[in-house]
Design a protein that fits this description.
mainly alpha; single chain
Length: about 120
């Protein structure tokens, strides 16, 4: 599946959300685009930072980890856009992969439980 071209299969993210993500990505490229390692490197660095922060906040029982999780989502969307991938196509493909994998794991567990 070519994930760089919208094949019109499904719309996962509404137009307004996608527009805002694209605007944020452009601002981020303006601000971070010339850093050492490039914009993609900066996005990955920020993602690692957010993961650490999410873990710390969640372990402390601080519900702000939910907002930081949302920030991580925005960074993930940015990484897709940075690589010219279609967000809807990628998410649609990932949803299908997760559904198939989880159903397979559940079926395997049920089969093992019967033995």
């Amino acid at each position: 599946m070519d994930l760089k071209v919208n094949q019109g299969k499904q719309k996962v993210i509404c137009d307004e959300a996608l527009r805002r993500i694209e605007e944020i990505h452009q601002l981020s490229r303006q601000y971070n685009g010339k850093v050492s390692g490039g914009h993609q490197g900066k996005l990955l660095e920020l993602m690692r930072h957010h993961i650490d922060e999410i873990e710390e906040l969640a372990q402390a029982g601080n519900q702000h980890f939910l907002i930081e999780t949302g920030d991580l989502l925005v960074l993930c969307f940015e990484l897709l856009l940075e690589n010219k991938a279609d967000v809807n196509d990628v998410l649609g493909e990932c949803f299908g992969r997760y559904e198939r994998k989880l159903n397979s794991l559940l079926l395997r567990r049920a089969t093992l439980a019967q033995d």
